[in-house]
Specification:
Chain lengths: 152, 127
């Protein structure tokens, strides 16, 4: 690839110290990308769980007795009034009332969106990984060179 | 010729200024990242609102209260917020460019001072 060749040239021009700096920088960028990938996967899993919860909700009849969470450890007895409509948190403090199929649709849309981002990130991480490996190789070669030239 | 001590003091002052500029650049990056994230979130909300029919119910969480909102009003609010964020981002980009230029100038000054100090030291060593 023409891009990779020019990158290799640039790397070859750097001395050992600069190479070490570049290697550290690329590795830290790579670690940030990995974290983002994990976050995306977590978010996608949460949406899938929400979708499953919706399916369970759709099976419940109106008037069914349920426990309503008031805090993390306190529940109150209640009845399911309307299993047809749900409130969806869309961000920045906005909630939209939707029907069950619309809610499922929303979850699916979000999951698709997250998958697309995930795949894009995997590509970027892959090319960063290549760059890191190349920098490491050139660094090793230079270090071997300088150790042989400094011997009396 | 300025004495060694004066040169060292100048170098310290210039180096401190360079460090302050770099700190500002770091802060600029951080704030810009925040704004970019908010922009993304607001865009998603905007898209969701667009998909709604006119009679859909929209609520806004204000403190602990869910308040019913008019769909048109909600859309207008989100749009205004997006515009505001975009304006802020543009402003920060301008500030960043100015800061980067200041950083370059400051780095040059520090390098020049370092060279002068080196020359003065070698001059002293010879004599």
């Amino acid at each position: 690839m023409a891009d990779q060749d020019s990158v290799v040239e640039e790397i070859a021009k750097l001395n050992v110290d600069q190479l070490r700096q570049v290697k550290e920088q690329v590795e830290s960028e790579l670690s940030v990308l990995q974290d983002s990938l994990v976050n995306i996967r977590t978010a996608a899993t949460r949406f899938e769980m929400a979708s499953k919860a919706l399916n369970t909700l759709s099976l419940q009849p109106a008037g069914k007795k349920m426990l309503v969470p008031l805090t993390a450890s306190l529940y109150a007895a209640g009845t399911l009034t309307n299993p047809e409509s749900i409130l969806v948190d869309v961000g920045t403090g906005y909630y939209i009332e939707k029907s069950l199929p619309e809610g499922n649709d929303y979850c699916e849309r979000k999951i698709k969106f997250l998958k697309a981002n995930h795949d894009k990130l995997v590509e970027v991480a892959g090319s960063k990984q290549n760059t890191a490996e190349q920098v490491a190789m050139v660094l090793q070669a230079k270090m071997r060179q300088s150790s042989t030239t400094t011997e009396p | 010729m300025a004495s060694m001590k004066e040169l060292q003091q100048q170098l310290e002052a210039k180096a401190a200024r360079l460090a302050a500029i770099q700190k500002d650049i770091g802060k600029n990056h951080q704030v810009r990242r925040q704004y970019t994230i908010q922009h993304g979130e607001n865009e998603m909300v905007q898209k969701e609102l667009e998909l709604l029919e006119e009679d859909a119910n929209v609520f806004k969480l204000i403190g602990p209260v869910l308040v019913k909102q008019d769909l048109a009003e909600a859309k207008a609010n989100v749009n205004k917020r997006i515009e505001y964020i975009l304006a802020e981002l543009r402003r920060m980009e301008g500030t960043l460019k100015t800061l980067e230029e200041q950083q370059r100038n400051s780095q040059e000054e520090v390098m020049k001072l370092q060279q002068r100090i080196q020359l003065a030291q070698t001059g002293k060593a010879k004599s």
